[in-house]
Specification:
Blueprint (H helix, E strand, L loop, with lengths): L3 H13 L2 H8 L3 H15 L4 E4 L2 E4 L1 H29 L3 E7 L1 H18 L3 E7 L3 H7 L3 E6 L9 E16 L10 E2 L7 E4 L6 H12 L5 E5 L3 H9 L5 E4 L10 E7 L4 E9 L6 H14 L13 E2 L2
Parallel strand pairs: 3-4, 3-5, 7-11, 8-9
Antiparallel strand pairs: 1-2, 5-12, 6-10, 6-11, 6-12, 6-13
């Protein structure tokens, strides 16, 4: 059996890049950390780290083990939370997940309602960006973006929650800022801020619309999230194209304008674990999310009804 405590220490070594860094973080001596890493290598029969300058780096096998250790530690944390719930008399726990803009826009209201209506239920929320996270972490309810039809996940039923358009976000000084709508092709000659370097469906939907309009955007700044991209737009560095939900809270000096010919869109789906589908708290979560998804937010506000996919 692999010692989970040693896995935790090894994960810290990988995260900090050194034995001394892990020792400082965990409150151990450097020699104790080194002994645990050496023991873990003996237990696994693998070379897990190698020297790099004054620090160490994980070997390919070490990186795989560190990633697996992170997932295991999450499961241990969840088990610990379950034990604490049982001790406290909490009867149930609901795990919700979703991509960043959906969690930011919707989950505070959902969690506030659930904790009021189901006070004996603990609600946990995670920000997870793709369908693989649903397969790996198995939340009770997940909000996921899909291309066309959603990917199936064993043990989950799928509901279409919303189809929403993308908008162009521009500095108020931009020559197109006063328009009621903008054709995609009109953006071809301008500087772009990439708002999502992750190669997922949200970005692909935008790139597909650009391709349909006959161009590839010229990105002068690459960022990994919408708020960062919006800050560059506010400084008049360039424009960005993001889903309407991501433009719900614009910084001063920016404006969102609907897009046409074509209008990029993304479909948002709700994944509900089959084993929890009849749980009142889970049912209420679906109702709350459907209500919130149906509320217009920002320019070009149109919504599609929440329907069960067959």
């Amino acid at each position: 059996m692999i010692d989970t405590h040693r896995l935790m220490i090894f994960r810290s070594v990988v995260a900090t890049g050194s034995v001394s860094g892990a020792a400082s973080t965990l409150g151990y001596t450097s020699s104790a950390v080194s002994q645990h890493v050496s023991a873990l290598q003996r237990e696994t029969g693998l070379s897990l780290v190698e020297k790099s300058g004054r620090g160490i780096v994980p070997t390919p096998a070490g990186r795989v083990l560190a990633d697996a250790a992170t997932k295991l530690m999450q499961q241990v944390d969840e088990l610990t939370a379950t034990v604490e719930d049982l001790r406290a008399g909490t009867t149930d726990r609901v795990v919700l997940s979703g991509f960043s803009s959906a969690v930011t826009a919707w989950m505070p209201d959902v969690v506030a309602a659930l904790t009021t209506e189901f006070p004996a239920t603990r609600v946990m929320v995670r920000i997870e960006e793709d369908i693989d996270a649903v397969r790996d972490t198995r939340p009770d309810v997940a909000i996921v973006v899909g291309l066309d039809r959603p990917a199936t996940v064993a043990g989950y039923c799928i509901h279409e929650l919303l189809t929403e358009p993308y908008v162009a976000v521009l500095n108020t000084n931009h020559e197109l800022a006063g328009r009621l709508s903008i054709d995609m092709v009109e953006l071809a000659a301008h500087r772009w801020i990439d708002s999502d370097t992750y190669e997922g469906p949200c970005r692909q939907n935008m790139l597909n619309a650009c391709a349909a309009a006959g161009f590839t955007p010229t990105f002068i700044v690459e960022t990994s999230d919408y708020p960062a991209a919006l800050r560059f737009v506010a400084r008049d560095v360039g424009l960005t194209v993001i889903p309407r939900l991501g433009a719900a809270d614009l910084p001063a000096g920016t404006v969102a304008v609907p897009l046409a010919n074509p209008t990029p869109q993304r479909s948002i789906f709700l994944y509900v674990k089959d084993s929890r589908a009849n749980d009142p708290a889970i049912t209420r979560t679906g109702e709350l999310l459907s209500e919130l998804a149906g509320q217009p937010r920002g320019p070009g506000s149109t919504t599609s009804p929440s329907t069960r996919l067959t």
